[in-house]
Amino acid sequence: MAPRHILHDLSVTEQRSFVDSFDTVISDCDGVIWLLVGWIPGTGDAINALKNAGKCVKFVSNNSFRTGEQYMEKFEHIGAVNVQDDDIVHPAKSIVRYLSYMNQPELRVYSLMSLEANEMLRKHNIEYESLQIKEHLTTATLVNYLAIERPVDAVLFDINLDMSYVELAKAIRHLQLNENCKLIAGGSDIIMPLAENLNVAGFYDFLQHISRYTNRKAIFLGKPAPILGDMLKEMFNIHTPQRCLFVGDMLVQDIQFGKMCGFQSLLVLSGSQTKDQMIAASPEAQPDYYADSLADFIQLFKNIQ
Ligand SMILES: [Mg+2]
Question: What is the pTM of this model?
Answer without folding.
Answer: 0.91
